[in-house]
Amino acid sequence: MSNRMKNPIEVIPQSLKGVGNLIAAVTEGGLPETTTELVAIRVSQINGCAACLQGHYTRLDAIGLSIQKVIGVAAFRESPFFDEAEKAALALAEAVTRLADADDAVPDELWREVTKHYDEKQTAALVLCIATHNLFNRVNVTVREDPSTAKWAG
Q1: Are 26 and 19 contacting, i.e. CB atoms less than 8 angstroms apart?
Q2: Rounded CA gap, 120 and 83, in Å?
Q3: Is 89 exposed, middle or buried (0-12, 13-18, 19+ CB in 10 A)?
Q4: Are 32 and 120 in contact, with CB atoms under 8 Å apart?
Q5: Which residues have a Cβ under 8 Å from the Cβ of 25 and sit 6 or more positions away?
Q6: Which of 15, 44, 62, 126 could bridge across to 49 with cysteines, CB 3.0–4.6 Å?
Q7: pLDDT digits (tens, 9 = 90+) for 29-87
Q8: What φ, ψ does residue 79 adopt, rounded to 5°?
Q9: Which SS3 state, helix, strand or coil, does residue 44 take?
Q10: Distance from the Cα of residue 24 to its chain's centroid
């Protein structure tokens, strides 16, 4: 697989400021880093972004994310390795990533479950995390970012 072009962030460096601000905002939101990584992995799985998945998998040891959780992300509802807060975050990630798949993409019941586990700032960070990783996925899939040569690849 070869890239169609350089990553747009390299072509238009000004865009890096916006992306950097989004990442900083998510970090300031108070979510556990393991939760943001699990969400990023699930979003990237749904969108088929191999470059993003490679980047996230290289961070697992650094943030203390167990292989049991990573393997179970796609089946988080049935997996015993996730707590209720993580399951709510992952369910929201799926719903937001698949907006067009349902008439009510983010039903009130799901929203109540998320806000039961996360305060307003954490919920805001979660929404921004999901949206940011969908942005990364859409860019990388479009330009066919090569996971073996991506700057963050191990």
Answers
A1: no
A2: 19
A3: buried
A4: no
A5: 125, 128
A6: 44
A7: 999 999 999 999 999 999 999 999 998 888 888 899 988 899 999 999 999 999 999 99
A8: -80, 140
A9: helix
A10: 14
